[in-house]
Design goal:
alpha/beta; TIM Barrel; two-stranded antiparallel ribbon; globular
Length: 277
């Protein structure tokens, strides 16, 4: 698809704001310490050969991972595999069930892995109304307080529905952000799903300064297809640069449905690294 500049700015959420930041000289290339990968991208490979997959991830150049499931390994065993590969588990995704029923054990495992962050990636469909979200916000505050005491940050990861107005015209992410304590609960922004839901990533970063401490980096075409970073239209230089200036500490490359997971994470790593890390 060929678009002129006016069509591009009109069609792509955040593009106009990105252009303004660039024009004012405010866009900074990211200066994060590491490029990470969300292991969900490599779930098939991890299930078949965790040690070999982690070694391949490290060979690409990644230094951090965000875990998604234990892959048959206890916390200490996973830590050994990561240490052997020269990787750090900076974060992990855990279920709301883990928060409600196994939170102490979940935090203990995260500490054993040396994590800085622990994130809930989704919520049950039956609990996505405003009243339920306010109750969940209370649970998140409590979980965040325990995580802070354990030396970690606690956060929530969005998909499309959280940034889309619900039946009452209010976006679920706004409820969660309003009713949670900024000192205890972060927003892990999945940039693809935020854009896919119509959110302006740069505007969200400004609106929630200091709360978006980690992001999922995955690209999107104009038509909505998820692609490797660099194959779509999202301006990661603008978004990541601005995010870093507002407190971003972790970035995790991800692709939900890659044709070849290792090829995908290798290609995406090269693009993110070229941004100036």
């Amino acid at each position: 698809m060929t678009l002129d500049r006016r069509s591009f700015l009109a069609a792509f959420p955040g593009a106009a704001l990105a252009a303004r930041y660039a024009g004012e000289g405010l866009v900074r290339r990211p200066a994060l310490d590491a490029v990470g990968v969300q292991i969900y991208t490599l779930r098939t490979e991890m299930a078949a050969d965790a040690a070999g997959t982690l070694a391949a991830v490290a060979e690409i150049g990644y230094t951090e991972v965000e875990l998604f499931g234990p892959y048959g390994l206890a916390g200490r065993q996973m830590r050994t595999q990561l240490d052997n590969a020269g990787l750090r588990a900076a974060s992990s995704h855990v279920s709301i069930g883990d928060v409600r029923d196994r939170w102490s054990a979940t935090l203990e495992s995260a500490q054993e892995l040396g994590q800085a962050l622990i994130v809930v990636p989704s919520l049950p469909g039956s609990e996505r109304d405003s009243e339920s979200l306010r109750k969940i916000a209370d649970e998140f505050n409590s979980a965040g307080e325990s995580a802070k005491a354990a030396g970690m940050r606690f956060g929530y990861h969005n998909h499309q529905w959280e940034v889309t107005p619900g039946y009452d015209g209010v976006r679920p992410i706004d409820i969660l952000m309003e009713y949670t304590d900024p000192a205890l609960v972060d927003w892990q922004m999945d940039i693809f799903w935020a854009v896919d839901g119509g959110a302006d990533a740069l505007a969200e970063l400004d609106r929630h300064r200091g709360r978006i401490t980690s992001v999922h980096v995955k690209d999107r075409t104009f038509s909505g297809e998820m692609v490797d970073v660099g194959d779509g239209v999202i301006d990661f230089s603008a978004i990541l640069g601005h995010a870093e200036s507002l407190g971003l500490t972790h970035q995790f490359v991800e692709h939900d449905r890659p044709a070849d997971a290792l090829v995908s994470v290798r290609r995406s790593f090269a693009v993110v690294k070229a941004l100036g890390l």
